[in-house]
Amino acid sequence: MAEVERWVLDDVAAYLEGGADALVVENFGDGPFFAGSVPPQTVASMAVLARAVVQQAGGLPVGINVLRNDAASALAVAAATGAAFVRVNVLSGAMVTDQGLIESRAAELLRLRRLLEARHVLVLADVLVKHAYPLAAQPIAEAVEDTLHRGGADGVIVSGVATGAAPKLEDLQEARRGAQAAPVLIGSGCDAANATRLASHADGVIVASSLKRDGRLANPVDPARVRQLQQALEQCQTPTERKQSLQ
């Protein structure tokens, strides 16, 4: 556990050095993942690590994602550690994955958030999440509307088909149409090369793969790559900024 914590905090330092705006704590090393609830040792470990990250983050927002879809544990860890948001892979609908069928957790999650008096913890939800297929075809704009208005998400995340794969531009555009004023984030595959083309259609990006040394996901975070991506993102106008510039 001490070795894992050192690795995590070294990555935090690299992200901060590179100018990251927020951090996400995720049990990506736990594969193969549980489809739903994770065991208690995972929750305990995530809480210890998340608390350490929050303390080192210097006030930057910290998010929690408990893979593959343990939204309740993610929210509990966030509420206990002072994290600002959770990422939920399947908040609305049902997806066929390598873990089997994963179904909506919106009803339990939103009630738990009220019970824990944790309304300040935002719910950012994937729409048609990567490494998964819907039971029935659904236009992404409709899926976004369901996730926001029926699932209760505070913002949505659009990713490519797999870890490190960029979303299609048309998917981002359709997701923006469905989200209207709600935040839309890119959940995979954004890098310094494609940021100008993709990130101008989103309000933020969640990145790991391209920010690791040599672009290899198993490596530590490279602050130079973080800085390079941040510089590319600064050249983009988000939808909100474009709207403000026209007013």
β-sheet strand percentage:
5-15%
Low-confidence stretches: 242-247
What number of structural domains do the residues give? 1
CATH class group: Alpha Beta
Number of H/I helices:
9
- Strand runs, count: 10
Overview of this protein structure:
This protein is an alpha/beta fold. It has a single domain, classed as Alpha-Beta Barrel (TIM Barrel). It is 40% helix and 15% strand. The protein contains 9 helices and 10 strands. It has helices spanning 2-18, 40-56, 71-81, 106-115, 140-150, 169-179, 195-198, 223-233, 239-246; strands at 23-26, 62-65, 85-88, 94-97, 100-103, 122-126, 132-134, 155-158, 184-186, 204-205. Strands 1-2-3-6-8-9-10 form a 7-stranded parallel beta sheet. Helix 1 (2-18) packs parallel to helix 2 (40-56), helix 2 (40-56) crosses helix 3 and helix 5 (140-150) runs parallel beside helix 6. The model is unreliable at 242-247 (pLDDT under 50).
In short:
With 247 residues, the protein is an alpha/beta fold. Helices cover 40% and strands 15% of the residues.
Give structural attributes.
247 residues, TIM Barrel, seven-stranded parallel β-sheet, three-stranded antiparallel β-sheet, 40% helix, globular, disordered C terminus
List the helices and strands and how they pair.
Layout: H1 2-18, E1 23-26, H2 40-56, E2 62-65, H3 71-81, E3 85-88, E4 94-97, E5 100-103, H4 106-115, E6 122-126, E7 132-134, H5 140-150, E8 155-158, H6 169-179, E9 184-186, H7 195-198, E10 204-205, H8 223-233, H9 239-246
Helix pairs in contact: 1-2, 1-8, 2-3, 5-6
